[in-house]
Amino acid sequence: MSNDTAAIDSSALTTGLSRKPQVIAAEAERPVEDRGEPVFSVKDLDFYYGSYRAIRDVTMDIWPREITALIGPSGCGKSTLLRCFNRMNDLIPGAHIEGQIMFRGEDLYGSRVDPIEVRRRIGMVFQKPNPFPKTIYDNVAFGPRVNGFPRNEMADLVELSLRRAALWDEVKDKLKQSAFSLSGGQQQRLCIARAIAVKPSVILMDEPCSALDPIATIRIEELMTELKDTYTIVIVTHNMQQAARVSDRTAFLTADVDDKGIRCGVLVEYDRTDKLFTTPKDKRTDDYITGRFG
Ligand code: ADP
């Protein structure tokens, strides 16, 4: 499946990760926020591309309705880790994980879990805006249509999704125009609207502003802050200022090099963003955030 296809599949109208209803206990149906539990619990995670171990020993919790930033030098495994959260890496031949990721109390990689459902529940927004070659309206309506969302309620859903993505006022008079007529920043907000339209609970963002100018970047950052009232957001960013501005928690990863010269991503430090940036516990974090490394 291409990135584009996964993006539209990336959330759900259903409640569980499996199409087999008995897998989902009633308790898991209650909003996780009521239970004060992490959305994701990652334990001893190793990730392999074939025989190459790209990340190792990652243990961390992702908390509901927060923005969690993954930062670190290029190649340390940030995107790989992000893609583990909605099983996007499953699409790469030979890729596999060891360890465990629990999503709302359910093993995300369990044998009965349907990865397509996972990608519907856990949406993804990519580095480069990737609208479909369709109208603005049809970009947002595409996922819900595939999921069988009622036709007579579609216009309302499209409007709501575009409003949530802070784009409605700019596009409400040109919904039938091509998505490509929009600016880069607008296209990225359209991709966010498209992800929202299929009712995800989590939105993963892989450097969503790196192709945008500073004004469009601020707009997306403001939008992320608004969205976290409803969604749990995990963002990969190479921009430390952005992590400091928008995130509640930050994970700093780096690449360890073994005696054979093989690099492997490790999680160095994970804390509330203000603490990590002001009083980092690990010298490697301090060196990175002060610009002495990376
Ligand atoms: P980051 O997002 O921190 O820049 P990545 O997660 O993209 O890092 O990459 C981590 C490591 O995994 C790098 O060494 C990269 O070359 C490798 N890698 C990434 N994608 C693939 C892939 N599809 N196949 C093999 N190796 C990959």
Write a structural description.
This protein has 294 residues and is of the alpha/beta class. The protein has one domain (31-289): 3-Layer(aba) Sandwich (Rossmann fold), CATH 3.40.50. The chain has helices at 3-8, 26-29, 32-35, 78-84, 115-121, 136-146, 154-164, 168-171, 184-197, 214-227, 240-246, 273-278, 283-289, and strands at residues 40-49, 52-62, 67-71, 95-103, 106-107, 122-125, 202-206, 232-236, 249-257, 263-272. α10 (214-227) links the parallel β7 (202-206) and β8. Residues 49, 54, 72, 74-80, 92, 263, 265 line the site of adenosine-5'-diphosphate.
Brief digest:
With 294 residues, the protein is of the alpha/beta class. Helix content is 35%, strand content 24%.
Q: Helical percent range?
A: 25-40%
Tell me, what is the CATH class? Alpha Beta
How many DSSP-defined strands?
A: 10
Low-confidence stretches: 1-15, 19-34
Query: In the residues, how many domains can be counted?
Result: 1
Radius of gyration: 19 Å
Keywords:
294 residues; alpha/beta; Rossmann fold; 10-stranded mixed beta sheet; 13 helices; disordered N terminus; binds adenosine-5'-diphosphate
